Target: Aldehyde dehydrogenase
Amino acid sequence: MKAHDGMYIDGVWRPAAGQDVIEVVNPVDEQVIGTVPAGTAEDVDAAVRAARAALPDWAATPPAERAERLAALRDVLVTRADEIAETVTVELGSPLKFSQAVHAGVPIAVAGSYAELAATYAFEEKTGNSVVHHEPVGVVAAITPWNYPLHQIVAKVAPALAAGCTVVVKPAEDTPLVARLFADAVHEAGLPAGVFNLVTGLGPVAGQALAEHPGVDLVSFTGSTAVGRRIAAIAAGQVKKVALELGGKSANVILPSADLAKAVNVGVANVMSNSGQTCSAWTRMLVHRDQYDEAVRLAAEAAAKYGDRIGPVVNAKQQDRVRGYIEKGVAEGARLVAGGPEAPRETGYFVSPTVFADVTEDMTIAQEEIFGPVLSILKYEDEEDALRIANGTVYGLAGAVWAGDEAEAVAFARRMETGQVDINGGRFNPLAPFGGYKQSGVGRELGVHGLAEYLQTKSLQF
Model:
């Protein structure tokens, strides 16, 4: 059986319970490039049962052996890196170079980091007359998004496996093909049957069945805040643990002492990366009033260079959503200095790289997550005003601060209500915890803090 003809459950590809399929569309040319089965509650139940049956043995496997299996998985991902990048490019529309560097490269780094952590983490520690034992939370439901389709799978599966949990993954319906490749990689790496399972399907059907299944101990979800609330409500009914990585409206604060040109150019690049489909993107640029006009000019020039360099958004619905936000920005009085709502191509789900000036903090485009290549530039009066604006949304996922003096930037960053802040263009660190404040989520991913999400703590007194 070909992988896309079924589900990966209990170590084998098996027929789906139903006959319905999901078409996978290339957002560049709008052509169907494949199909996957639309999973049902019956498929989910089979996958959860397989994960439950595999849990005792995998949980009892020594951490050093789990580390070896994760290292083997990392090595398989390395050998399949080109295929992974090419697959993400056709199902997400990402430019190939970006797919190679990020969509294939980052998951390899994350898998490797958890192979090392599984071998070195202190699963037991002594405190006073007690031994504190960290054990796997159980069966994990990983419901993943389409914007970084493999990274988000690995960021959940790798720590869960390192902790000794077993997993059922339900990938986004727009980008399920790379999830299929990952299942093949798991199989090739020799993980025991049932430790990893894959069910493709629609969120309201397979996703909901997975979240509410009584055999699931933890639901790890990345996606919209609205769906996150729904999953949290389902989990609350069973007092089930959740880890939620949700929306963002991150502020890029440029203090007066910063290198303005560098801060603006890097900020625009951040927003345009992955066609703006990044929950942590710095979509609000905050600039002092004395530097505002120059920043707007620089941002408009920078955005114009991305017209032929970014891919489309993922589907027609997302294209309409982003263009609708651009139209809303114009209607509310923001000034377009680059891009606009008109589609730049007749075919494909493309959106023009767009920059708004004269944005006020009460505008829709300054408060709501757009998830497209759209930047809003806001003016502030002084540092306290900048902090108020930066913290003035329901989100708190990421952000950036630029200043001529690093200590000045750090002092500002410490007061931002957000889970991660880049200082003067700080580089991505796969070992640093990632997650949100406020309505951007609950819990953390990556590094030792990401591992801790999949562990239960038990105290033994002597």
Notes: The chain has two domains: 2-246+440-461, 251-423. The mean pLDDT is 97. Residues 96-120 form the longest helix (25 residues).
